[in-house]
Amino acid sequence: MKHLKKDFVAWVIVVLFVMMVFTIYHQMNQNRYEYIENKDDDSYEQLHPIVSEKMEELLDKATKQNIHVVITETVRTMEKQEELYAQGRSSEGNIITYAQAGESYHNYGLAIDFAIENSQGDVIWDTSYDGNNNGKSDWLEVADIAKELGFEWGGDWPNFKDFPHLQMSFGLSIEELKKGKRPLK
Ligand SMILES: [Zn+2]
Known about the structure:
This protein has 185 residues and is α+β, with helices and mostly antiparallel strands. The chain has helices at residues 2-32, 49-64, 78-86, 138-148, 174-178, and strands at 33-35, 68-73, 111-117, 123-124, 152-153, 165-167, 181-183. The protein has 2 domains: 2-35; 49-183, Muramoyl-pentapeptide Carboxypeptidase, domain 2 (2-Layer Sandwich). A hairpin with a 5-residue loop joins strand 3 (111-117) and strand 4 (123-124). Helix 2 packs across helix 4. The relative contact order is 0.16. Residues 106, 111, 113, 162, 165 line the site of zinc ion (ZN). GO terms for molecular function: hydrolase activity.
């Protein structure tokens, strides 16, 4: 009898443990993503609160290193993306993006672009500028801070390098975002 009771207790523990693991796994998956209904309507897209919070931290940290970061772009509508994609193709100018509407993390409020304000107050895109005179490029210092905060930097991309670009994918691909999947807020 004593032996049976022990076996029973052991089984209960095993079953409870397995149930707990399943529940936690399920919750984790549930909590990471949500599906949105009107995936073709981008008018409501806002900068994701975590991206927004990390952007503020980036500005603070850069300021402490005497670098004045300027955010030049956050959320970009599908219409704006089409216009940018047309530039250098069906309209004048240089090609500035390889992403069509819906193919940029900007379209989902998950990306920002930055530039630097120099000591004269001009906004510059000079990646070698060293305004704080510490022997390091300010631009690369900003990229390093951003990466520490969890951003992916477009300057690290192997092909088309997008130096002003910072994004957070939350593990979601563009394909998943297009289908209406969104990181939870
Ligand atoms: Zn960008």
